[in-house]
């Protein structure tokens, strides 16, 4: 019997770079009412092939169904479910924090603790760029919150397997 515990899963999907592929993939989630957390698409090292990283909250039965449905889409070349132990996953965040001459050094120091960097300085704010796991990015926001967060944007996660294993596409 499959578990009904909903957990976060990362799927790496290799697709042909064709018009409408993102719409087709996201539409598959919409039609089946799966909880899509994020979807990021980008070019790969191979011309004509893109990698879509999908983060989804699902139980074991639904993640198997999602994988099967993705594999049925014609421009999809390969679907791999990534696991926590063998995966490097990161997101990027830009956050604008209120800053003046009195607290700016504290903000810069706090950002450096998280290996984040200041990418813009204005008289009343700084913009910080950070990459990392969702937990690391949340912790940075918790530290910046007392200074006053003015704006925030965060990407979805991208992910790769650790070590020599690659996700080589099937022949087109």
UniProtKB/TrEMBL annotation:
Annotated function: Catalyzes the conversion of 2 pyruvate molecules into acetolactate in the first common step of the biosynthetic pathway of the branched-amino acids such as leucine, isoleucine, and valine.
Q: Which reaction does it catalyse?
A: 2 pyruvate + H(+) = (2S)-2-acetolactate + CO2
Q: Gene3D superfamilies attached here? A: 3.30.70.260, ACT-like. Chain A, domain 2
Quaternary structure (record): Dimer of large and small chains.
Q: Which UniProt keywords apply?
A: Amino-acid biosynthesis, Branched-chain amino acid biosynthesis, Transferase
Q: Please report the organism this UniProt entry assigns to the protein.
A: Corynebacterium callunae DSM 20147
| Pathway(s) the chain acts in | Amino-acid biosynthesis; L-isoleucine biosynthesis; L-isoleucine from 2-oxobutanoate: step 1/4; Amino-acid biosynthesis; L-valine biosynthesis; L-valine from pyruvate: step 1/4
Enzyme Commission code(s) on record: 2.2.1.6
Boundaries of every ACT domain copy? 10-84
Name a GO CC annotation attached to this entry.
Answer: cytosol
A molecular function (GO) held by this record is: acetolactate synthase activity
Q: Which InterPro entries match?
A: Acetalactate_synth_ssu (IPR004789), Acetolactate_synth/TF_NikR_C (IPR027271), Acetolactate_synth_ssu_C (IPR019455), ACT-like_dom_sf (IPR045865), ACT_dom (IPR002912), AHAS_ACT (IPR039557), AHAS_small-like_ACT (IPR054480)
A single GO BP term for this record reads: L-valine biosynthetic process
Q: What name is this protein filed under?
A: Acetolactate synthase small subunit
UniProt record similarity statement: Belongs to the acetolactate synthase small subunit family.
